[in-house]
Every structure is written in C-alpha cells, then in structure tokens.
Amino acid sequence: MDAAAFRKHGHELVDWIADYLEEPERYPVLSRNSPGDIVRALPASAPEDPESFGAIFADFERVLVPGLTHWNHPGFFAYFAATASGPGILGELLTAALNQQAMLWRTSPAATELEQVALGWLRQLMGLPATFEGVIYDTASISTFHALAAAREARVPAVRALGLCGRDLPRYRVYCSAQAHSSIDKAVIAIGLGHRSLTRVPVDEAFRMQTEALAAAIAADRAAGVVPLAVIAAVGTTSTTSVDPLRAIADICRREHIWLHVDAAYAGAAAMLPTHRHILDGVESADSLVVNPHKWLFTPVDVSAFYCRRMDDVRAAFALTPEYLKTSEGDAGAVRNLMDTGIQLGRRFRALKLWMVMRSFGASGLREHLARHIELAQRFASWVDADPRFTRMAPTPFSVVCFRWEPDGTGAAATLAPPAADAREVALDALNGRLLDAVNQSGEIFISHTKLNGRYVLRLAIGHARTTIDHVSRAWQLLQDHAARIQESV
Amino acid sequence: MDAAAFRKHGHELVDWIADYLEEPERYPVLSRNSPGDIVRALPASAPEDPESFGAIFADFERVLVPGLTHWNHPGFFAYFAATASGPGILGELLTAALNQQAMLWRTSPAATELEQVALGWLRQLMGLPATFEGVIYDTASISTFHALAAAREARVPAVRALGLCGRDLPRYRVYCSAQAHSSIDKAVIAIGLGHRSLTRVPVDEAFRMQTEALAAAIAADRAAGVVPLAVIAAVGTTSTTSVDPLRAIADICRREHIWLHVDAAYAGAAAMLPTHRHILDGVESADSLVVNPHKWLFTPVDVSAFYCRRMDDVRAAFALTPEYLKTSEGDAGAVRNLMDTGIQLGRRFRALKLWMVMRSFGASGLREHLARHIELAQRFASWVDADPRFTRMAPTPFSVVCFRWEPDGTGAAATLAPPAADAREVALDALNGRLLDAVNQSGEIFISHTKLNGRYVLRLAIGHARTTIDHVSRAWQLLQDHAARIQESV
C-alpha cells in the first residue's frame, strides 16, 4: 500500500470511525454471534495474491463487525466499562505509524521521556508522592506480576541468580483479600511461589479486607516459619469496587517489613476527585501501585501505569544488557532504558495516547467525567434501594452497582427457615441469570454478574465517557420490563 | 472530542502520516536529541483545562518529532529493522477505535476467532504442522516466558499449587546457545529457576549451537541430579541470525523428554520462502515456537505469535476463572477464552492488523519482500567481501550482515603475534565504534553493533518494506566515506 492508497483508505476509515463514534448504538452492544461464525466465514488459508483494501474492509464489515462486542458503546455496563476516546484513538494511530520500539532511550527518546512526563502528570493528579517512579506495562496482570517479582527480589536472598529450587529456603506467603483479583493468583504461580502461597484474607460486610485477620495470618505464618513476602491491598475490587483499609494495611506492612502493592487498576483514577482522595490514604508507605488508564481514564487498551517506590528492585530482578544493546548514554547512566524495568524488551509508545487524553480532557474534564459516573451510579443505586423487588448487594463507593432481583419482595435480609432459604437462593440465582441473559439479548445494554456470599449478583458498571442518565435510566427500565416478563412466564 | 472533531483531526492526521510514509527521509533516522530534552520542554503537570487538539499536535511536532528514532525510515538498519505498513497502521487505527478487550470469547468473538484464523494462516505460510495451536502475546519476551512456564508446569510435580520453595525438589536446567536472546535469561529469572539454571552451550564457527556440547551438558547435569527442563533453539540469533541445528536438537530433546522451544522471533518469517523452508526442519517435534510479525512481517508493534503443541500445559499453568468471568459458552467448552492461555487477562485485538497485512500483501507479496531483503543483504555482504579494508564477521543466512572495518587491510584471519594482536583488536574496536557513531550521526542511516568472539562488530539489518538497493548502496558509501575521514584524522 503506497502513501496515496494509505491516504485514501485512511480517510475512509476516519469517516467510518467518526460515524461509529457518533452513533455506536446502531449496533447491539453484546455480539449476537455464535461460536465459530467467524472462523467458518473466512478462508482457511491466506490469499496467494495481494487483495485490495476495499475487499479487506468489506469483509471486516460483513464478517467481523457482527462479531464485535461494543466496548465503545455507552450501554456497555459489564466488567469495568471503558472508553476509547477521540484523542486516545488518534494517539494510537500515530503510535502505529511511528512504530517506536522504546527498549532503549536511543531507540525512542520521545517514547522514553514522554512516558516519564505522562506518568508524572498522572501521579500528581492522583496525589501520589513523587517518591513513586512510574513505568508503563500492557496490563495490570503484568504490573502486579512485576510488583511480586520485585518483592521476591527484595526478600529472597540471591533469588535472581539461584532461584527457588533445591535451596534451603523457607516457604513464602502473599496475602490479599477474598475479593482480590485473579491476576494475583496468576502472578504467584508465575514467579514460582505456587498458588497455595496466596492467603486470601476474609472481608468484612462491605467486602473490605479484615486487617485483624491479616495481622493474625501473618503472625501464624511467622510462628510456622513461613516468611511473609507481600500484601496486595485492593482499592476498588473487581466484584464490588470495595476499598481495603489501606492505611491500616500499610501500618502492618511497615511494621512487618512486607512489600505492599496496591491494586487500584480501576478505582485509582477516582483519587483525582477531592471527594475520593481518601481512598489512597496511607499510600505513601506502599511500595507499589497499579492504575490502568485503559479502564477509567478514557484511553484505549492497552496501558497500565505501574508506580513503585523501589523501582531499583524491579531493575535488580530484570535489568540485563547484552552487548548489542549497549549505548554510550546507557553506560554513562545518563538515561533510563525502559527495557531495564521488567521482563519485556519491546516497549510500544503507549504514553502518547495517555498524554493526548490528559491534555484533551484536561484535569478538570477527567474529574468531571469521573464525578458524573459516580453520580450516575448513585442514582441507579437509589432506584434499586427504592424498589422492593430489587436489593442492593454491596455499597457503591464508585461507579459500579451490585444488585439482585428478588421478586418475592422480601429483600436480602429476609429471614426464612434454612431449607426454604436455600431453595429460595437457588431459585433467585436462576432468575437473576435469566434476567441477565434477557437484558443482554436486548442489544441495548450489556451487564455482567458476580457472586457475593454465594449469591448470584448483577453488576452495572458505569464508565464510558458517552454514557448519560438516559442510558442508565434505560438500563433500569429494561431490567424492570424483562423481570416482569420473566415473572409472567414462571 | 466529539465525532465531528474526531473526523476533522483524524483527516489531518491521516494526511500527516501519508506525508510521513511518502517521505520519511526528511528526518534523521536516529534522533539527535540529548537526554532530557523532552522532559525539559514539557510542563511538569497536566493542564487543568482541556486543550485543543491543534495545540496538542503542535507540541507533538515541535517537541516529540525531534525525539523520534525513525523505525519506519528505510535507512533504519539497526537491531532488526521493522515496518509499520499501511494496512498494519489502518488495522491498529480500527483496533484502537473498537477498543476490544478479548479476555473472553463473549467480550469479543471477532478478536478471539480472528486470532485463530490469522495464526492459522501464518502457521501454514511458515510450514508449521497443524498440531501447533497459536496465541498472540505482546512480545517475544512474553512468548518465551510462557514457553518456559509451560515447560515448568509439565516437568515439576504440582508446581502450580506448591511452587518451588521449601520442597524437596531437584535443581532444574534450561539450555540455549551462547548466542541466544536475553529474553531467555529474564524468563528463567521470572519463573523462579534462577539465572544460574541457564546453561549457555558453546557455538560453532558459524555461531550455531554445538549439539554435542548440548548432549554433554545434559548428561553431566543428569549425572549430578540436575533435571533438564527445556532447550531453546534459535532460528535466527540476534547478533548474527545464525540458525541452530534444529533437527539434531529436536532429536536430543525427544530422546531426553525435554521441552523444546524455538526462538524464531525474527527469522521464522523466512520459512515462507522455498529457499529457506529448511530452517524449520525438525520443528514438528518441537513443543513451542515464537515468531514476531512486528519484526519481519510488516506489522506495527506489538504482535508476537506463540505456537505450541501442548497449549494445554500453558492453560494448566494459568487458566483460572473467577465467578465474574464465567459464561455459559465457556462452561460448555464451546469456545476458547484467550485469558486462559497465559498470565495476561486483558487481550488487545492484535490479530486485526496481522490479518489485514497478510491479505494486503498476499503470500506472494510477503515472500517477495523477504526474498528481496535477503538478496539486498547478500549484495552488501559481497561488497564487504570484495573490499580488503572490511571483513565479514559471520555468515549471512538472512538479511543481517555482520562486518568490521579493518583498515590495515589484513582481514580478520591475519596472524599477528598475540600482544600485537591484542593491541590491534582494541584499536579496531575503537575505530569501529567511531565509524558507527559517524555514520549514525549522518542522519541517513542507523546501524547497530554487537560483539563476536570478543570483537566489536557492525551490523546492518535489512527489513523495512521500503528499503531499496539505493538505501543499501548509500549505507555502504557512507561507511566508506566516514572510514576514510576517520583514517585521515588518526
């Protein structure tokens, strides 16, 4: 494709995307494809001869578009809603064209230094101390993996050289709450500690880690010769967005000399708001923190910001410079080479889109969107609370509402004899599953679910920049309509 | 930014990029920035109020463009040259706008299934057997990490649950050649085996792993109670693009029941050529292989294709489904959920650009570019060979030439008395370093270096789709001119 053809097709795509951004609601938010539809619709082998971009794009529209679940649709309320905003998309377009690979400062001074600038801005907006150095990874899973790898480096003698096998080492322990994210499980498996090295500390009635239980678990482990390695505090758990008591956990970690990693992948953004600044109270003595701008900061996937007060431990674990990557500026210590901070050698120019988003929205614009999403969630929560057929199943500290349809109108707190209660719960789980499927099949909204205290719970997550009160009202209407229909049919 | 503004600025960017692709040579290929230039030129804090895209883009041009090293410049001959081709850039533009996050089939049937289709096409083009299942990661570092994590899962009893510490486990060993990539070092560190668990097997005069030495190392380890875990064979090492004897290594691994991972990140693409199909001879009994389309297949970073005959071992290591990610189609086993294959939960729609590149180039177009690059490298190698002032330092099986300026004209094989030889080598190393800096400062080309047998060696890596004989001739001319100037000055 020469430059003239790129220009032509680029303009066509920009128009297609502008139309898409203008009217995403023309598509059902959740794909209606069946498994295998796309595989069956496409040839099993690559074409021998070049094909025109027109032919490729026609197949994109015909075969792939029906297979999209529209994360960029304002009715996307599942998991954590996200937004590819205009400046974020344009940033990615430039990133692709420039094809920077910022392993070394030399291979992209712009990507290397803009990462420092953009993460400095974000750090200030969130109120993180300047003692936190930042680096961009692809996902929170990889950020948390690096936090635990650094904690291992800091705690286990000579682990980089000698590893963990065939040595007279104790067992190590990592702690997180029962509500913490599965990326922590994957990270402890990855770094060789084993899944059983992860202790999931019980939560209180608001799904927050019980710090007394954490302290007790640490004490019991120490008594048994098990060495505490790291604690992960969640600021915004995935199911309910609960916030672990960070300061109390930080106090324990400081006293016990345990690495404290804060998983604020979703909710960390809210620390920009004066009303929510307190969610990071105590963070100054944490060792590391992850926040994902591709979740609630209007930046397309992928961009995960990892902040660390001890980035030298990350470098001690992974920095390694083969001859062919030596540079005079690197040898002189005059620059930071991104390849030194972590396992990946290749680094995409992810800072560009984040920088463009922060400038285009401005700090005030970011705060307005975040506050608006939280306000919308509070309104939805108030409708749930006011309706006897629905029950809220968790507090709503941010923009995610956990609720449940309980058509017998007795509320979650209803006291029934245990066997009847069991049967009732099973029936309600099934009814809520049917309700989830029904509203998702409408094509207008997409919500997801979780389980809390063993019960099937619906989740409505607000986070798309274009989501308005109309979308949220419509979601509530759909839930009521479909609930009524299901009730008529049973 | 509303849709109208996106349309306006999108068109402006497309025009800017088309101009860039048309005439990348207006920029010096290697940035002339000094460390800190960009940090100093930008504000230390995010703006409070939204800024216009015009203002943002003006800063992009003023501050960031001078800090770019132009990977998309046809004079980029460093490391492994790469190309962001038109269809690849347009694919990334769509990926950003659609913002698919393909952790589950449900969250993007299109991204999930197109990944399977695109990797099937690539597998066939490279002549890999259908027994290899594919998955896309971000980088070869992460692909190789997963290969070794899967090998660990397959070999170490109950490692997922119990880890490596405080157990009566033997030590494990991983083997690669002395020329293999540093991502292997990082992977063995990451998974807790420790850096010393990596044995670097000596290479022959053509920088290929010595299989007798590999067999001997394995035997010695077994005799000492150390358990061989994995061998990494390189098809295209980073310094010289040497190809390890894959079939002989595969025979050893099969006999010894050792996981064989093939690092074909750069050179695997060349297996598409009938002339180079043999480089993967024996691959059918390998366990896994990585090839990076963002290296020599004209696709923007990042996209790494990981193929595995035992993907269930990857899933056994990492699959883990929290309640909120359960779906009926997943429970029924009707779909593949990408989150199960590896550590990352979030998955970007990377297959789209790869699929667009394969269709836009066609298999014939991909082969033509690869063959042309190899042909250009052979011509450059022939010029080096014909010039008594330069010496080729390694065979040139693909598109990378390793050479050295030896202005005394005696050639690398010159026999000198040892003390004199040492002094000569030191002087030649310094001269070649000066030559590297001089040609890179020209702005017309960017080459990199390595060390072979202790000697500083220049590398010219051809791989950009727009690189022609004129660029390669010009590189040779620049090397000669600057060598002459340096010689005059000493």
Instruction: Tell me the CATH topology of the largest domain in chain A.
Output: Aspartate Aminotransferase, domain 2
Strand order of the largest sheet of chain A: 2-8-7-6-5-3-4
Radius of gyration of chain A: 24 Å
Give the CATH superfamily of the largest domain in chain A: Type I PLP-dependent aspartate aminotransferase-like (Major domain)
Largest interface: A-B, 159 and 159 residues
Unreliable runs of chain A: 412-417
| Strand percentage of chain A | 5-15%
The averaged pLDDT of chain A comes out at 96
Query: Can you tell me the number of structural domains of chain A?
Result: 2
Oligomer: homodimer
Molecular shape of chain A: globular
Helical amount of chain A: 40-55%
Sketch the major β-sheet of chain A.
7 strands, mixed
The first-to-last residue Cα distance of chain A is: 59 Å
Please state the structural category of chain A: alpha/beta
The CATH C-level name of the largest domain in chain A is: Alpha Beta
Query: How many DSSP-defined strands of chain A?
Result: 12
Q: What's the total helix number of chain A?
A: 16
